[in-house]
Amino acid sequence: MRSYGQYCPIARGAEIFAERWTPLIIRNLYLGCESFGEILEGAPGLSRTLLSQRLKQLERLGIVASAPKPDGRGNRYALTAAGHELFKVCVSLGEWGAAWLEIAPEHLDPFVALWSMCNMLRRDRLPDRRVVIRFEFTGRRRPERYWLLIERGETEICKTYPGLDEDLYITAEAEAFVKWHAGQQQWAAAVRDHRIQLHGPAWLVRAFPTWNARSAFAHITPVSRTTASPAA
Q: What is the pLDDT of residues 43-101, one digit of tens each?
């Protein structure tokens, strides 16, 4: 961590918060990730080595606390009071990003949207039985396939066939799925235009979109660059 060498609180805070991957690590911890693997899964592209460095740094600064797991395999991580306060900066940054930055092609990773959706499912609406859903995402350099397992309110995303019967099969354009979760695409319109297609029992086809709590920033209307004007 390099210092700006300034007493300014913005400069001192940026020395910590503006480190690459740090905001995403804080976000993942706030969303309930506790283990090293869970934090890593929600940050595709982050290496294990760098995550280890960042967690040690955040612990040293009193932003993250860790404790050994009961089984002795690794640690559990959680935000401290300072970490929860720092998450408010994440929220402000997210609100600004949702309003002022467009979702570009390089942002259309469907796995991230699926992972985010799993962390914000409306668990009171999930079925009592186990459900296995296969996703096929198109519109990327190559098609991507994932399986979502839901059982007793718990979820798991598999990148390889889990060996279980599939209850629902969803094919979707990555852009449509990501923007639906982000609040910039209506489900009914995407289905009508065949950008998202569902194959399975009627009750499950109807129920699936109701499980998604959507992004915490889905309520924010993007500001058009053509209508944005200088502040008075």
A: 999 999 999 999 999 999 999 999 999 888 889 999 999 999 999 999 999 999 999 99
Residue 79's closest CA among 14, 15, 28?
Answer: 28
3-class DSSP string for 112-163? HHHHHHHHCECHHHCCCCCEEEEEEEECCCCCEEEEEEEECCEEEEECCCCC
The pLDDT tens digits of the residues spanning 174-195 come to: 999 999 999 899 999 999 999 9
Task: Label each residue of 33-97 as H, E or C.
Answer: CCCHHHHHHCCCCCCHHHHHHHHHHHHHCCCEEEEECCCCCCEEEEECHHHHHHHHHHHHHHHHH
d(CA 178, CA 104): 11
Residues 6+ apart with CB under 8 A from 55: 25, 36, 39, 64, 66, 77
User: In whole angstroms, what is the distance from residue 70 CA to residue 211 CA?
Assistant: 32
Question: Architecture of 106-211 per CATH?
Answer: 2-Layer Sandwich (3.30)
- Spans of all domains in the chain: 9-100, 106-211
Place of tokens 């990773």: 109
Q: Domain 9-100: which topology?
A: Arc Repressor Mutant, subunit A (1.10.10)
